[in-house]
Amino acid sequence: MDDEPVLDDIWTSEDGHDVVCLRPWKGTWDKDDPHANFKSDVIGYGLLNPLETVRGMSRNLDIPVGAIVRYVLARWATGGSGGLLEIGPVMVPRLWAPVEEAEREDTDEQRLRAYHQLRQMLSWLKLPLDDPSIYPPQAEDRAADGSAAS
Fold first, then answer.
1. Is pTM, for the whole model, over 0.70?
2. For labeling, which of 66, 119, 122, 136 is most exposed (least CB within 10 Å)?
3. Per residue, what are the HEC states of 86-125?
4. Whole-angstrom Cα distance, residue 123 to residue 118?
5. Separation of alpha carbons 64 and 79, rounded Å
């Protein structure tokens, strides 16, 4: 089962800033824990000392260590919502629909069908990344490169 989280890992300094203790974790979890992969990653990455890299970045970029750590944490912690903004609130349900249908049907055949449908949808989305010339230049693009706008 999960070890109880350490509640004294965060406190507020005298100047009002959050202070966090960076400590490795060696927790355990049930075999069917849906977060087992993440917990395993926490243990694995906990073997590393991220401050070695961050201190080097701090020296090379002339940015305080705390500012870099705050950036890294904020960037990682908002990655899911950033991904949603990238894909868009309309496309996420469209991508999820085949998965949902496959899970409802609960057959390997339906899951394979969902995979092929997702593959097709993703290939369509990445087409302009693979071949930017697929779409003609827009009026703004033509004006910017000196071409006549229609």
1. no
2. 136
3. HHCCCHHHHHHHHHHHHHHHCCHHHHHHHHHHHHHHHHHH
4. 8
5. 23
